[in-house]
């Protein structure tokens, strides 16, 4: 009897444990490879413990760290500035959409929702941004396009809808202006929602390489993710098309195995640190859209 | 009852978890397929009309212009800006232009150029070829300017330096759209082996050089057998995708797509290379060698491709692949981590793909096409300027030693793009230590003595059979590793042929034949 009760639980736990392991192993092996010796890796393959422990790969990447530091600072600037502005805008529009007494609520909702389904397409977007707005090779091109993401607006709106309307009303009776209500009542109340959406936005900015691939040609504006993406993409391209390429390409120049992994650690590192700080809001925030009240 | 629902619920949970888990594992597999089909927008009518004006001007009275130049490579290099500004000093002085360098990394170049061309954004020069920023397709879209007049007027020296049949190979409907970066165009794979091994077992690689084909692979067998006996960990290495130039037929869209024409076939009949006796024979030799244990196929089959890392780890007997060129043993030695010897596999052939592999095009949107052409002429005639771009700043990124060879400078790591054929004629490059002094003369000779393909000047437009090409190439991907490792049995090979046909091989062959016939008719 007890076995029968425990068996399903055991099964689920087993699956979850496997799942957790599957998440952790790649990370561990990346760390271990980045700390291993290149030739040993080539001979023995990857392993979970560093072989011939050394920091050579990090030394290689940090040989001329200006590029990397620059990319890191671009990424940080874009992520932080982008997240702050984006949160303000997202919160603003979500709040308006959550107010029942807003006249154009449905039209505005449709406008937001519509962009979730349809967009301008790659080439028109590119033409608009580079030929008309002249945003190419500026820091703003990395920030502006993600300022208002429909999905995040919808999440936050749902969260804000749960804040009772009577709070707003009582504020009004006390003579608070709309801005005061928004900044001093709604935003503090919506903190869990803001934290969740903020984390998503932060991740979106931090992980993005697409915008920089399209619009950034100046080395000084290349963010970290794009730098990493470019490196890995190069390696992939070179191995794939060696037969087509003119002779004389030396594949040995691309950063080797260990250096790539070290690069990955450096790119993912900051987010691993940030995540736990958000976590207490995160669990709460995730359920916000689930229950409608 | 309740227990039952709980059981069901548990079951569902487990299933979902298993699904997630398997998705997770599946994600470790291939990552390749997603990228295709993005951005296929048509190009807007670009209205810039370009009138070549002001002929015969020289440096002084030219107005100051900026030329935008897109090119791929191992970018970024740490000190590229320093080198580029040095280059601009020279260019400014000589043709009063400033180059706006747009170095794009290899992986991004295709995507980037597609968007730029489709959006009609102005630029002047771009690298184009058959393997990146596709030449034929771009010409068909009308992205490039015809260069015939510009060449005659602004680049007479470099135009004359390249053989006429090379220029003919770039012609589309009778017009030249690509400026050739002259380099080795005669193609045959390279056969290479470790020098120490060859000496130990008394193998003279030049004795087989140029003689290998599907029929004569057995020339290699005594050597392989001897090495294998003492070094069971070593294997014979080759890759189908790298030896397409070894056969006596020219593949039209790469070895992985059905469609080839025999070099000696005047009627230019397109055949399916996988159904030729020659290819079947090659597959049979590999099968035989695998049976004899030369391939270490069990160990290698898990990888899609052999790479030099294994060579460095001492797992190779010999390798057939890459492209033979004089001085190539220097490269092989650096890749393999020990001295290598090399030889051409078979007789070299001159094909369209070998020639159009490295070119520059002037954009339809360019405002200064004549100045762009002058820049190309300058890059292809000014040895110092070219080498500045190619190797960086003298006595910093590279040095010339007492014997006149190029050697690495103290700061080479900061600028070493390693793409000489990308900037201009490869033959202007300083000769690297270890290469023979006559390497460029040898290469030119190889180019001239190579047997020109009868299809020279024809390039296949894959657009009409894109779907079939995708399907057949997927079939190839499924079977090629087995074929090159010799683990594919005869039945399995026939199954491969059947699948190829089911994937639309015939349709591709017909389309190729149609295009070749039209091209042939236009030649006369």
Automatic annotation (TrEMBL), chain A:
GO terms for biological process: transmembrane transport. The keyword Transmembrane helix applies. The chain crosses the membrane at residues 72-96, 108-127, 139-160, 181-206, 259-278. It is found in: Cell membrane. Pfam families: BPD_transp_1. Gene3D superfamilies: MetI-like (1.10.3720.10). GO terms for cellular component: plasma membrane. It comes from the Bacteria. The keyword Ubl conjugation does not apply. Residues 72-278 form the ABC transmembrane type-1 domain. Its main location: membrane. Keywords: Cell membrane, Membrane, Transmembrane, Transmembrane helix, Transport. It is a multi-pass membrane protein. InterPro entries: MetI-like (IPR000515), MetI-like_sf (IPR035906). Belongs to the binding-protein-dependent transport system permease family. This is Carbohydrate ABC transporter permease.
Automatic annotation (TrEMBL), chain B:
Residues 34-58 are annotated as: Disordered. InterPro entries: Bact_solute-bd_prot1, DUF3502. Residues 44-58 have a biased composition (Low complexity). Transmembrane segments: none annotated. SUPFAM superfamilies: Periplasmic binding protein-like II. Residues 455-521 form the DUF3502 domain. PROSITE patterns: PROKAR_LIPOPROTEIN (PS51257). PANTHER family: ABC TRANSPORTER SOLUTE BINDING PROTEIN-SUGAR TRANSPORT (PTHR43649:SF17), ARABINOSE-BINDING PROTEIN-RELATED (PTHR43649). This is ABC transporter substrate-binding protein.
